[in-house]
From TrEMBL:
<dbReference type="Pfam" id="PF03033">
    <property type="entry name" value="Glyco_transf_28"/>
</dbReference>
<keyword id="KW-0573">Peptidoglycan synthesis</keyword>
<comment type="similarity">
    <text>Belongs to the glycosyltransferase 28 family. MurG subfamily.</text>
</comment>
<keyword id="KW-1003">Cell membrane</keyword>
<dbReference type="GO" id="GO:0008360">
    <property type="term" value="P:regulation of cell shape"/>
</dbReference>
<dbReference type="GO" id="GO:0009252">
    <property type="term" value="P:peptidoglycan biosynthetic process"/>
</dbReference>
<keyword id="KW-0131">Cell cycle</keyword>
<dbReference type="GO" id="GO:0071555">
    <property type="term" value="P:cell wall organization"/>
</dbReference>
<feature type="binding site">
    <location>
        <position position="175"/>
    </location>
    <ligand>
        <name>UDP-N-acetyl-alpha-D-glucosamine</name>
    </ligand>
</feature>
<keyword id="KW-0961">Cell wall biogenesis/degradation</keyword>
<dbReference type="GO" id="GO:0050511">
    <property type="term" value="F:undecaprenyldiphospho-muramoylpentapeptide beta-N-acetylglucosaminyltransferase activity"/>
</dbReference>
<feature type="domain" description="Glycosyl transferase family 28 C-terminal">
    <location>
        <begin position="168"/>
        <end position="337"/>
    </location>
</feature>
<feature type="binding site">
    <location>
        <position position="102"/>
    </location>
    <ligand>
        <name>UDP-N-acetyl-alpha-D-glucosamine</name>
    </ligand>
</feature>
<keyword id="KW-0328">Glycosyltransferase</keyword>
<comment type="pathway">
    <text>Cell wall biogenesis; peptidoglycan biosynthesis.</text>
</comment>
<dbReference type="Pfam" id="PF04101">
    <property type="entry name" value="Glyco_tran_28_C"/>
</dbReference>
<dbReference type="InterPro" id="IPR004276">
    <property type="entry name" value="GlycoTrans_28_N"/>
</dbReference>
Length: 348
C-alpha cells in the first residue's frame, strides 16, 4: 500500500464524474470536450468543426494541468476526455496507458494507440483492433473484477423476500432497465409464476410503477407469489450475483467483468443500441467459451427466452459447468495487473 500516491481525475463538467469523484475526496479538473457525430450532414459537419475547436483548446488546457500536477503516469479509459489528456501526456514523454474495456475498441482509444506507451485490454478479441500497435498490448482485465472477486454467496435475497436456499434467476437490463427485456418478462409472467425456481426482476427505476401495474393486471398481485420479487433497482448487484443461480442481463463490460470474476452462469441479451454492436461481441466471448447463452434482442419475440431460462434452471450440472467456464475467463487480479503495468513503465 502506497499512502503517498497522489491522484488527479480529469473529466467533463457534464459527466457523472464531476460529482462522484469529488465525493471521494479525489482532486478533479474539468475539460470541455465533445464526441464527433458520425452522421455527416450539414449539422453533423458543423458540430464536428466545433468539436475540433474544443479538442484543440482542451489539449492546451491538458498541457497546463499536466505541468501543474506533474504526474509520473497517466491512464485513460476511452472516454472523449481521455484524448487530449493522454495525447498531451504522451507528447511530453510521460508513461501513458489506455484501458479498453470492450471487445471493440472505441474511436478515442484507436486514435491514442499510436501515441501511448501501452494498451491494456479486457477481451482477447480486442487484440486485432490496434493494427500496427500490437507490441503495446497487455491483457489486464477490468479492475472492477478485483473489487468483487472475493464476494461469497450470502443471504442478500432475503432483502427481496426470497429464500437464499432456493434456485433463483436474476433478470435485469442495466441501471435504467431495458424496455425489450422488461416486456419479455411481463409476456412470460405466467411461466415464471408457475416455475419451480424464484425470480428477482429488476425493472429500472423509471419503469417500475408501470411494470408493477402490468404484472398485477396480467398475473395478479406480486406479493401473492412469493417466488417472484419485482424491484426498481439494486444497489449492490455483485452481492446478489454471488447468491443467485443464473443471471439474465445485457452484456456491458462491467457486468461481464463481475460475472466472470464471480463465476456466475448467464443468459446475455446484448443491447443493439451501442457503438459498433460491441455488446454482442462482448457476449460472444462468453458464449463461445460455454460460459453464457446468447440471445439477440430480435429473438425475444420467440419462445427462445423462456425455453432457455427454464432449460438452464432445470439443469444444475449445466449451470455448474457454465459457472466454471465463466470463472476461467475472470481476471480477479485485474487491478494488480494494471498497477504492475504502470509501475513497470514508470521504472523503465
Amino acid at each position: 500500500m502506497n499512502d503517498d500516491i497522489e491522484f488527479l481525475y480529469v473529466g467533463t463538467e457534464r459527466g457523472l464524474e464531476s460529482t462522484i469523484v469529488p465525493n471521494y475526496s479525489i482532486p478533479f479538473k474539468a475539460l470541455k470536450v465533445e464526441g464527433f457525430k458520425r452522421k455527416l450532414n450539414f449539422e453533423g459537419i458543423k458540430y464536428n468543426l466545433k468539436t475540433i475547436g474544443y479538442f484543440i483548446q482542451s489539449i492546451r488546457k491538458s498541457k497546463k494541468i499536466i505541468d501543474e500536477f506533474s504526474p509520473d503516469a497517466v491512464i485513460g479509459t476511452g472516454g472523449y476526455v481521455s484524448a487530449p489528456v493522454c495525447y498531451a501526456a504522451a507528447k511530453k514523454g510521460i508513461p501513458t496507458v489506455i484501458h479498453e474495456q470492450n471487445s471493440v475498441a472505441g474511436i478515442t482509444n484507436k486514435f491514442l494507440a499510436r501515441y501511448v506507451s501501452a494498451i491494456a485490454i479486457c477481451f482477447k478479441d480486442a487484440e486485432n483492433q490496434f493494427k500496427g500497435q500490437e507490441n503495446k498490448i497487455v491483457f489486464t482485465g477490468n479492475p472492477r473484477a478485483q473489487e468483487v472477486a472475493d464476494i461469497q454467496a450470502n443471504d442478500s435475497l432475503k432483502t427481496f423476500g426470497l429464500n437464499p436456499k432456493q434456485p433463483t434467476v436474476l433478470i435485469f437490463g442495466g441501471s435504467r432497465g431495458a424496455a425489450a427485456i422488461n416486456k419479455t418478462v411481463i409476456d412470460h409472467c405466467h411461466a415464471f409464476v408457475e416455475a419451480d425456481y424464484q425470480v428477482l426482476f429488476v425493472t429500472g427505476r423509471e419503469h417500475y410503477e408501470d411494470l408493477s401495474e402490468e404484472w398485477k393486471s396480467s398475473c395478479g398481485l406480486e406479493d401473492e407469489q412469493s417466488k417472484v420479487s419485482i424491484v426498481p433497482y439494486i444497489e449492490d448487484l455483485p452481492s446478489v450475483f454471488a447468491s443467485v443461480s443464473l443471471v439474465v442481463s445485457r452484456s456491458g463490460a462491467t457486468t461481464l467483468a463481475e460475472l466472470t470474476a464471480l463465476g456466475v452462469p448467464s443468459v446475455l441479451i446484448p443491447s443493439p443500441n451501442v457503438t459498433e454492436d460491441h455488446q454482442t461481441k462482448n457476449a460472444r466471448s462468453l458464449s463461445e467459451a460455454g460460459a453464457a447463452e446468447l440471445i439477440l434482442e430480435d429473438e425475444l419475440n420467440s419462445s427462445k427466452f423462456i425455453e432457455t431460462v427454464n432449460r438452464l434452471m432445470s439443469d444444475e450440472g449445466m449451470r455448474n459447468d457454465m459457472a466454471a467456464k465463466a470463472k476461467q475467463l475472470g481476471v480477479p487480479d485485474a487491478s494488480d495487473k494494471i498497477i504492475h503495468l504502470l509501475m513497470t513503465l514508470m521504472n523503465g
